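Issue: copy button drops trailing tokens. Both records pasted manually instead:
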Amino acid sequence: MRKTILVLRNEFITTVSRPSFLLMAFGLPLVAFLVFTAAGWLGRSVEGGGGSTTGGGPFAFRPQGLVDEAGIVRTIPADMPPGMLTILPDEASARQALASGEIGSYYRIPADYLETGRVYLIDPDARPLTSGGQTWMLRWALMVNLLGGDAQLAARVRNPMDIVQTPLSPAPQRDTESEAAFWIPYAVTLIFYFVIIMSASLLLNSISKEKQNRVMEILMASVSPREMLVGKIAGLGLAGLTQTVVWVLTGYSLLRLGGQTLNIPASLQPSPSLVVWGIVFFLLGYALYASLMAALGALVPNLREASQATISVIWPLLLPLFFINALIQEPDGALAVAMGFFPFTSPIAMMTRLAAGGVPAWQPALAVALLAATAAFVVQAVARMFRAQTLLSGQAFSVKRFWGALLGRE
């Protein structure tokens, strides 16, 4: 046990102290947080500036004039900012007001407006964020006056219906119309694919490099293969768990904040249980694929062949990426349920389904049980083949030899 802890500590400290690991584990989440914060700040600036009626900033409203040759706009709606849209008798008066600075621009509604819908904007500065950016005022004034001055009717025409869904089942309904209904599960899929692959690949690289540099021969003189395997899996697993927790908590926090900043529907905002399931599925998925990577590293003679042979191990984990649309759009479909239960795809497929919503509580629990049993079996199988003659072998890699050694046939 003492030697296992020494291997664990060495692998953990060596991994987390690498600049590349620090950049991936903490740098990327920090950049995402800063970008998200900046986007939210800009959004609030636009929203806050949109209500300003004074000042020369890019989002400040400027008084505008209106020359209505069609005789449609007779009154300015009472709910509009006062003084921001003024009806002028003719274009000569508008040009005079423009020259004196009373208005910053003016609209001219031609006599054939009802036939063409064309409106002219005369703006000497031609700054879209200050003049064209407030055309909603004229649009609202036209809508109210075209409907006889009835602002309530105009509001109903602008937003003709507010659908309230009444589900027959007590389960919360997903807002499938929102773009977030696709992009949130999509992001979860990519995050879990990368963290599992990256964490498991650390073990493959460690063993392959030690074999290639002949460090393995020195280690085998003082540490048993089983102690080395357990120490490496645990040490690199802790490093991967650190990265996963940072990524998951950052993503969770941003999505929760995004519910306000990005108007994400309440039914799509992640729950705390998603974080818990994420940690569980990462640990088990890592244990499964890290063990397979360790077996791969024990058989290949060098790191180059190890990289080429990786596909023979990780191909099941690619299946959720190929069928990601089906997993997101039909999380309760036969394919999604099957991939959620199959241990070699469940670490990603089940997390995608959980992020999409509507998964019964017993399904992730059963998937965890199946995944844990499979991971325990693979770890035991790899421990049996993780012996000196395998680690120090220089034979070329073959898929048949890999699975034969894993199943104890060689």
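Record 2 (pasted manually too):
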Amino acid sequence: MKEERLLNVFGMVDDKYIVNAAPESLLKKREKKSHVARKRRRYQIKMLRFVAVLIIALMSVWFFQTPAGAAVVERVQEQVTRMIEILFPPKEITITPEGLTEEVAHSAQGKEPEADTPGFAIYVDTEQYTMTEEEGIFYIRPIEATDSLLPAIEMVIIELPDVLPETAAKEAREQMEGDWETITEIVRSTEPPRLYYEAYAGFAWDSAIEEHYFCKNGQQGTYHIILRYFMEATEGAGMRFRAMLNTFTVIAPQDAIDLP
């Protein structure tokens, strides 16, 4: 039944997302990590979950029997399925393109998780970039067209369902050998946890650059993320892409984050 599905969705939501989506007036960001503060935080999370479930339950019981009520429930259901919009509200991100600090508004976009497959969320600077999906691959590109004679400027997000990050990184790097002037060794970072390497076509102002990142998809697969730009755009598009990349979050089928 529709009301059961709505309740199940809220029941699966990880507590950390409820905290992030809650207004600051209800959950204070800078509470001291004392025993009392932790108890209060757990209580607030429980109350948020209880209120959300109660509202949906009441709507389902009270309105679902009427045509108007069914339409309302259907609308709520549509809102719940847009989990990314609910759990990742818009926010401003501090970036320093070309050495100038900016507070830039970003909105979360991505792929909704399904019953047995993960999804992801990433904050995008929608004033300057747009994200599209083409045959299961996601692209973030400048809204304003760039010179077609210059190397591509884009971020590419590819899911490799049955390949672990270590294998994906090694195979991708091997395929690029011989085509690029310089390829760095694969490096493992812990904050955030992922593997990455960089490739340079040269060191002229218009030489292409690629940054390759690999993180677990929450199961036995990998998200392979590629940043493409050229040398002169390092402090512009390159900086903005990395700011967006640092917000990339895997959403496992039941909202359980599982990074490498």
